[in-house]
Amino acid sequence: MNSLRATPAAAPRWRSAALVLAAIVLAAVALAGCTAIGGGDGASTAVGGEAGPPVSENGGSPDSSGGGALGEDIDTGPPFAPEILDRAVITTADITVRSADVTRDAERAAQLVATAGGQISGDVRGGVGVEQTADLVLRVPPGAVDDVLAGLSGLGEELSRSVRSEDVTTVVADVDSRVASLEASLDRLRGLIADATDITDLVTLERELAGRETELESLQAQQRALNDQVALATLTLHLLAEQAEEPGDEPAGFIAGLAGGWDAFVTVGVTLLTGFGTALPFLVTATLLVGFVVLVARRRRRPVTTAVAESA
């Protein structure tokens, strides 16, 4: 029985442990209360203490994330989506080939273009023999440009080549938009003219209609030209015979002037000599006839003069 009875020294130890445990519990309660008070302050607004929208874990409201009921109809994408336009590119190329037979290779070039689904829009030829030249303007689909250039290069010795591409997407889109706007404007003007009752208003509307129709025709011509240049690439082929000069070989400046003057001098001299050679047989014949007439006239004059002298 004496062993189950607590000793006087053990009592203070139990009281100390109870005090420590009570202090820990009080501290936890106080910390929880501060946290609750801080959360309530963050949820309240500055005016009137009204509660604002609930805050999500990442610090934003459900509306801004699109997950809440109010955010379902809100477009969180970019402010505008640019319209995707079809690319419009104008392709031009220039190739110079030294040819052994200009006429034959010009016909081969025409066959290449026809096979590619294109056409010839220009054919200028000059010179003869070893100085013969041919300049062909070929229109082919843009997708066939590389194949056609390869075929043209095989006609002879390729001297030069250049290929250029110009993006005119925005230009085409602008012209198309202006054409559509003018067409709509013309429709409205025609409606106003049909309903007009005052002669002054009618004359003004018809004048405005005529001006806009002229502008529309100009824009439509520009539109057709752009569409044609985009639909078909333009290739220029220069065919040169063995001794024909390349397009860029002509001198410039003083040398060009001197060469041009000399060519003109030679041309004039050749022309004069040609004319003189043409007229020379006629001049000789005329000279002989004139000499014969003069000789006969002198012979007839001598007897008359002698008879007059004897009578005197």
Number of strands: 5
- The dominant shape is elongated
CATH architecture of the domain at 89-167, by name, is: 2-Layer Sandwich
CATH class of the domain at 89-167: Alpha Beta
Give a verbal description of the structure.
The chain is α+β, with helices and mostly antiparallel strands and 312 residues long. Among the domains are: 89-167, 2-Layer Sandwich (Alpha-Beta Plaits), CATH 3.30.70; 170-229. Helices cover 57% and strands 14% of the residues. It is built from seven helices and five strands; from the N terminus they run H-H-E-H-E-E-H-E-H-H-E-H. It has helices at 10-43, 62-65, 102-115, 145-153, 169-195, 199-231, 254-311; strands at 89-98, 119-126, 133-140, 157-167, 233-240. It has a five-stranded mixed beta sheet with strand order 2-3-5-1-4. A hairpin with a 6-residue loop joins strand 2 and strand 3 (133-140). Helix 5 runs antiparallel to helix 6 (199-231). The longest helix has 58 residues, at 254-311. The protein is elongated, with a radius of gyration of 52 Å. The termini are far apart. The model is unreliable at 1-10 and 36-82 (pLDDT under 50).
